[in-house]
Amino acid sequence: MAFSALLTPDEAEKLSVFLTAGVSTDMDGVVSVFKSEPISYRTQTTRSWEFTDLLAGGNSEFINGDDDASLSNYGKDVIVGVLDSGVWPESQSFSDQGMEPVPQSWKGICQPGVAFNASHCNRKLIGARYYLKGYEAQYGPLNETIDFRSARDRDGHGTHTASTVAGREVPHTTLLGGFANGTAAGGAPLARLAIYKVCWAIPGQATFFENTCAGEDMLAAFDDAIADGVHVISISIVPYQLSSYGEDLLALGAFHAAKRDIVVAASCGNSGPAPSTVRNVAPWIISVAASSIDRVFSSPVLLGNGMKIEGESVTPHKLSMMHPLIYAGDAEIPGTTNNETSGLCLQGTLSKELVQGKIVLCLRGYSRNVEKGLEVRGAGGLGFILQNPVDGISISVDAHVLPGTAVLSNDSATILNYIKSNKNPTASILSARTVLGSKPSPFMAGFSSAGPNPLEPNILKPDITAPGLNILAAWSEATSPTKLFDDSRVVKYNILSGTSMSCPHVAAAAVLIKATHPNWSSAAIRSALMTTATQTNKLGLPITDGTGDTAATPFHYGSGHFRPGKALDPGLIYDANYTDYLLYLCNYNTSLPSIDPSFTCPDDFPSPTDLNYPSIAVSNVNSSGISVRRTVTNVGVGASVYKVRVEAPVGYTVEISPETMNFSSVGQKESFNIVIRPGSGLRNGYAFGWYTWSDGIHSVRSPIVVSSH
Fold it and tell me: Which Pfam families does this entry report, sorted A to Z (predicted)?
């Protein structure tokens, strides 16, 4: 069990020395001491489930039809722990109407606090706790004007993620202005929710900044969730900096969960598309990337020369008449900007005299999208056009405080050229509307963090992708949709983008599998999700990266886009247990003592490539090649024959033996070897391939990622 304690540096050092040396203390069970680090972790911010069903070949009736969720009884009685910023318990998404009594296995509590008491828990929201010791050790006593000293959510992020996992069906749900009308529901609407508030507002920072989440608070929450009896944990939080397994308290908490076969799904980060930005890379965590769905919020810009440029917005305003158009860089107060910051609509930079009554073109950078709109409004602007903050085709929409739309980066250059070449440029911003069936879909979100794994390149991360772009879910009524102090609007549902949104989708899929196969291990559930994922979009073409033009790779999406229905019957699974992870950690001498000092590594332990993982990543293959071993367990048809098909990475040969596996019973295990060698056409960098085991019914597909010296 984890706990926080305020120690002097001398006390902490002495305790750490005793533990390292194996000296007995009166604190039985204490295995390690960690120093609290500032801002170590942070959060990552009803079409998605219907779209997921369509992608798997369904009829788009995921919530109400004879669907894969109903096959698993909608996750009934599976308990999901959500580590985040709390919950808004009054949301209809957390209604317990028609639900049966709380499962007897539940051992948790409903912790009272400010604006939160036992009556806020029910048969849906069965538990709630909050953790402040680590936070207050860093920032001092909580300022209760910026957050609730309880499990109640002031930020909105935790409410959003919790309802995405297991929110009840709420018909006729919309955003401001009627956008995204439909039935809002989590992926496992009959699962139970346990809330662990570990993320809090940072004193002195604007409310729209991400919360901070202290590592020791998360570790304590993990251990409480384990003791409480959760089956799945969803954590849309990433380490602020890359740390070793022994120093990463999120990874350590997840390791404790893995020991009890609790599935942990976590965000992979929002620092993409740059390589090696992926986080939450421990192999006992499902690391989730973010991709799009087939819904856009079209809000075009019409220029005075008749050119129409596509934009996106969920702002419930319009400027259908032509108005003067100005570039922010031409409307700034002298001395408030420089070459790097000109044109960005930063706070206090725009001249009221020049902006009054006009539409302003704002370039990206240095501030949030919603801040730019606030600056334009403060200077008397009628509306604004925003250059998309991310290159490519993924636009994260916002409910701005004035008429506004975001356009692709290249299109902003077109608009700027029009402004520069016309004496009296004008524009209008047309009404936004919800459009379904956009193509291509899915594509990878430009912000989604990417591989290779910076900590251990022989473990592929991320593992999988799921919807994370413009996701509608429940929201805290203690904050506005923009989280701006000057925005007084209150909403029950809001749209957010991030791997924070994709993570609870995968957690919900894990719930559905757990409900169908209650005795499966956490590794088996991860394997089922990964080996049944798809690498193609709705058109049957390869999923693209954020540009929309280039095929994505396993560094973007891991094994592919999740398909929960397929994962219920994967055929074969790659299993692993706590001991396998300990043997894996033997490769990192500095990490194992702090994780489990009771375990002694054998003289001969397996390399990271031989961990029984559903994907294969091998870095620095030499000229003689490398052999990798895997073991699969039959969870499909008793008597079955599986044959393998290989798509070798360019420049390599891949031999798998045996090429055929015969199973006579469910639960039977078979092993095979994979030999990878450099061949003709070898190129610098990484190459990608696949191998697939099939019995004619199931396709068990795994990526191969390889590089050479």
Answer: fn3_6, PA, Peptidase_S8
3-state secondary structure 520-536: CCHHHHHHHHHHCCECE
Cα-Cα-Cα-Cα dihedral sign, residues 51, 56, 58, 63: negative
- Measuring CA to CA, how many Å separate 504 from each of 162, 257, 612, 613? 7, 17, 25, 22
Task: Give the total residue count for the chain.
Answer: 709
Question: Are 627 and 672 within 8 A, CB to CB?
Answer: no
The pLDDT, as a whole number, for residue 183 is 81
Amino acid found at 471: I
Bridge partners, residue 181, by sequence: none
Q: Which amino acid is at 641?
A: V
Distance in angstroms between the alpha carbons of the first and the last residue of the chain: 44
Task: Read off the amino acid at residue 226.
Answer: I
Sole residue written with tokens 């590089």: 707
How far is Cα 651 from Cα 653, in angstroms, rounded to an integer?
A: 7
The residue assigned the tokens 């259908």 is: 320
User: Is 157 a catalytic site residue?
Assistant: yes
Q: What are the pLDDT digits (tens) for 391-403? A: 788 888 988 899 9
Residues 552 and 587: beta-carbon distance below 8 Å:
no
Q: Which residue from 75, 27, 525 is spatially nearest to 257, judged by alpha carbons?
A: 525
572, β-bridge pairs: 634
Q: Which of 32, 163, 243, 500 is catalytic?
A: 500
Residue segments in the chain with a per-residue pLDDT below the cut of 50: 15-31, 39, 45-46, 59-66
Q: Please, what is the average pLDDT of the chain?
A: 89
Rg (CA), the chain: 26
pTM: 0.91
Residues 315/398, Cβ–Cβ less than 8 Å: yes
Residue pLDDT, tens place only, 637-669:
999 999 999 999 999 999 999 999 999 999 999
Residue 172 is among the residues annotated as catalytic for this protein: no
Catalytic residue, candidates 67, 77, 84, 569: 84
| DSSP secondary structure of 262-289 | -EEEEE--S-TTSTT------TTSEEEE
For residues 512 and 562, what is the distance between their CA atoms, to the nearest angstrom? 13
Residue 84 annotated in active site = yes
Annotated active-site residue in 4, 72, 157, 412: 157
